[in-house]
Structure formats: structure tokens, C-alpha cells
Amino acid sequence: MLLANWNNGHVMRAMPPLPSPSLQEPCALPTIAGVDEVGRGPLAGPVVAAAVLLEPRDMPLGLMDRIADSKTLNMGQRTEIAAALQGCCVFALGWADVAEIETWNILGATHLAMARAIKALGTVPGRVLIDGNSAPALPCPCECIVGGDASVPAIAAASIVAKVARDRHMEVLAESCPGYGWERNRGYGTPEHLDALRRLGVNEHHRRSFKPVREALAASR
């Protein structure tokens, strides 16, 4: 099993060509990878994608029934399911940091994170199912499914894995950048976070191309 490493109003810019993933090992058997991301909307922190290869025969009894869109689960449920998936499924994470979000814009950075997650699997899936309506260039067939995190178990599993990984990362950032409430708001533009932007200012983990952050920068000059 592949053990994943958990800790690895927008201005849209002309986007240079994205780096192309290059996977060298062909998959021995047809496989389907579910892919989802978390972190497109926050004002701070990275965007994170997960790719998951589900094999129901290897899963503990009842686990498949617990997999759902991460947005419908509480933190405890997500953490438990992610830990269970880590013990029985192959999955990998892809990250795009704030500098890459600023360089490629949020859609491009999301595609980059997705491509990195697929590459990190170490094998080319026979097919990739991606939540949403936009996909990166991949070395295998892919299909976009709007609402896939609520209807496709592999995508739902990816949404859980990505959410748990990013939440843990934001908790670590909150320790080094106290006062913004990232351990609670995960970098989203909540009243708590917006108030902290006004009081504490913008730091290196903020996405300066996002409107509330731009406004905070302008107000501080």
C-alpha cells in the first residue's frame, strides 16, 4: 500500500503552460482513480488534491458505506475514514502552494495539484474520474463528473483524504501564524479571518491575488 505523506474575487492571469506529468510505470491491470481537491476558495494556504484507487475487496466491512462527500461529514468522521483508507487503499496527495497559485491562478494551480497527485500514485491509472467540470492534461483517459464527490465513491474518498491533509496543514500554519484562526477557519474568508487581516495584516501564506487580501494590502499602505 502507498502511504501518503499528510504534510506535504480572484485576479485571473494569462497562464503559462503547466508542467506535464510524466508517469513511467504502466498499470498492470485496469484501474480507476478518483480525484478531488480542497482549498480553491480560501484566502490563505495551498490547494491540495488527492488521487485514490479504491478496491472494495480490500476494505474493512462497512467502510464503503461510510464514504461520502467530505462536506457532509464532521471532522471526526473524516479523520476516522481517512485513517481507515490509509490502511487499505492506494492514494497520493498533490500540493500547489501560494506562489504557484499566484503564478498559475487558482484553476491552473488546482490542475497542477491534481496532476501531481496522479503522478505520485506511481502507476498510470486506466481511467481517472475528476470532480467538477475541468481536468488537467493527464497521461490517461479522464472524465469530469459534476457533483462526483457526492456520487462516485472513489472521488468522495479523495475529497476526504484531501480535506484531512489540508486541515492538518492549516493547523500547523496556525501555530506559526497565530491570530488568524486558521485552526478553525482553514484559511477561508470568515469574519474572524477578515478581522485578523485588518488587525494583523497580510503574511506570506496569504493569496495576494484574492480580493479581500488585495483590499487588506491596499488599506495598509
- Unreliable residue stretches: 1-29
Question: Ends: how far apart?
Answer: 52 Å
The tally of beta strands, per DSSP, is 5
Query: What order do the helices and strands follow?
Result: EEHHEHEEHHHHH
Under CATH at level 1, the class of the domain at 32-178 stands as Alpha Beta
Helix content: 40-55%
Please summarize what this structure is.
This protein is α/β, with parallel strands linked by helices.
What does this structure look like?
The chain has 221 residues and is an alpha/beta fold. The termini are far apart. The radius of gyration is 18 Å and the shape is globular. The longest helix has 24 residues, at 153-176. It is built from 8 helices and 5 strands, in the order ββααβαββααααα. A hairpin with an 8-residue loop joins strand 1 (32-38) and strand 2. It has a 5-stranded mixed β-sheet.
Question: How would the blueprint of this fold be written?
Answer:
Blueprint: E1 32-38, E2 47-53, H1 63-66, H2 75-88, E3 90-96, H3 98-120, E4 127-131, E5 142-145, H4 148-151, H5 153-176, H6 182-185, H7 191-200, H8 211-219
Parallel strand pairs: 1-4, 4-5
Antiparallel strand pairs: 1-2, 2-3
Keywords:
221 residues, alpha/beta, Nucleotidyltransferase, domain 5, 5-stranded mixed β-sheet, 8 helices, 5 strands, 14% strand, disordered N terminus
